[in-house]
Specification:
The chain is 48% helix and 9% strand. The protein folds into two domains: 143 residues, Rossmann fold (3-Layer(aba) Sandwich), CATH 3.40.50; 34 residues, no CATH class. The longest helix is centred in the C-terminal third of the chain and has 20 residues. The protein is elongated. The strands form two sheets. The protein has a three-stranded parallel β-sheet with strand order 3-4-5.
């Protein structure tokens, strides 16, 4: 039900804003059916359904905004510097821990439609909103990810060695150095 409401809202947006492209990437566990019927009901040239088994990166790079509920795609979008809108129609505030303050949360399809329309129509709002989203996302990502020029395998090896030494009671002066 929630996916249907959000999809209808996004398709209505695409119909009303023909210059905007809507790229829909189903979850890898998606079972074909309702989503495809909805898209067929709105035969729009600016709506693109990507195969659920494809990696999302080309779509993320093309996106100006990523709309999701909560998913790793939201985190990946943030890494690529794309603002994330998290749609929480069920008012499940407990899921806000996933993105913290890094996403824009909307709790109704009307709020989603209004935000998308404002991003398209308000030339002053969009760059300010986008920059504020990116700043919150950078802060969020810095809390959870190490920025380093060292190879990931080297960082992983150091972390494993530290855990093994700690398990065996050997004191270390271990720290990951961001380079």
């Amino acid at each position: 039900m929630e996916q249907t409401l959000v999809t209808n809202t996004l398709l209505n947006f695409a119909r009303n804003c023909p210059d905007a492209a809507l790229i829909i990437k189903p979850h890898p566990a998606h079972q074909p059916g309702m989503l495809e019927r909805l898209i067929e009901h709105y035969p729009l040239p600016n709506v693109f359904l990507i195969n659920k088994d494809m990696l999302p990166y080309h779509a993320l790079m093309a996106a100006d905004v990523v709309v999701t509920k909560f998913s790793t795609v939201g985190i990946e979008a943030m890494i690529f510097g794309r603002p994330v809108v998290s749609v929480m129609l069920d008012n499940e505030d407990r899921w806000q821990f996933v993105y913290g303050d890094a996403a824009e949360y909307v709790k109704t399809v009307n709020a989603l439609a209004e935000l998308l329309e404002k991003l398209v129509d308000d030339a002053e709002f969009r760059p300010k909103w986008t920059e504020a989203q990116r700043e919150r996302q950078e802060y969020f990502l810095a809390q959870y990810f190490i920025q380093s020029s060292r190879p990931a395998a080297s960082l992983a090896a150091d972390a494993i060695a530290h855990r093994l030494l700690k398990r065996d009671g050997i004191s270390t002066q271990w720290s990951v150095k961001a380079q």
